[in-house]
């Protein structure tokens, strides 16, 4: 079963590039152009990984990240912030919101793929999204 990746990004050219890149790696993808759409897809698509822009219309990536971390049903979901905001304060805010990793734009596709694969290789992800470490596989 392919790992599921949600791309929450409002720039269409970046979405197209990320979808192509993630599908080439064998991942199933969905994309959301704003925070509300991403929130809806989190509930229905149940991604293993979210590539999350901070600056999204309708809900910020930071708010979405906090919502993911507060939702027990999304406990195994990994969040990789992918954003133009690269200051130390921005990176700290991303990690405080619960991001597992943080990549600034422009980004190296090889680096992004390596980071995504590393996050998805985390043993906690062998659980189905929505499971907790004490649940049976």
Describe, in plain words, how this protein is organized in 3D.
This protein has a 5-stranded parallel β-sheet with strand order 2-1-3-4-5, sandwiched between helices. The protein has 137 residues and is of the alpha/beta class. The longest helix is centred in the first third of the chain and has 13 residues, at 12-24. The protein has one domain: Response regulator (Rossmann fold). The protein has helices at 12-24, 35-45, 61-70, 88-97, 109-120, and strands at residues 4-8, 28-32, 49-52, 78-83, 101-104. Strand 1, helix 1 (12-24) and strand 2 (28-32) form a beta-alpha-beta unit. Helix content is 41%, strand content 18%.
List descriptors.
137 residues, alpha/beta, Rossmann fold, five-stranded parallel sheet
Radius of gyration: 14 Å
Q: How many structural domains are formed by the residues?
A: 1
Helix content: 40-55%
With helices defined by DSSP (H or I, 4 residues minimum), what is the helix count? 5
What is the CATH topology?
Rossmann fold
Mean pLDDT: 88
Order of strands side by side in the largest beta sheet? 2-1-3-4-5
* CATH-derived architecture: 3-Layer(aba) Sandwich
Profile the largest sheet: 5 strands, parallel
Query: What is the number of E strands?
Result: 5
- Taken as a percent bin, the fraction of beta residues is 15-25%
**Cα end-to-end separation:** 14 Å
Based on secondary structure, the structural category is alpha/beta
């Amino acid at each position: 079963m392919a790992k599921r990746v949600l791309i929450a990004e409002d720039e269409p050219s970046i979405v197209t590039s990320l979808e192509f890149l993630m599908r080439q790696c064998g991942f199933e993808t969905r994309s959301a152009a704003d925070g509300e759409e991403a929130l809806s897809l989190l509930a229905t698509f149940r991604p293993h990984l979210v590539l999350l822009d901070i600056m999204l219309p309708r809900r910020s990536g930071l708010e979405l990240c906090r919502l993911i971390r507060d939702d027990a049903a999304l406990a195994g979901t990994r969040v990789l912030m992918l954003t133009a905001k690269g200051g130390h304060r921005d990176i700290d805010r991303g990690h405080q919101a619960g991001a597992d990793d943080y990549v600034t734009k422009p980004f190296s596709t090889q680096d992004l793929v390596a980071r995504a694969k590393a996050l998805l290789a985390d043993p906690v992800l062998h659980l189905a999204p929505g499971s907790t470490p004490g649940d049976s596989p």
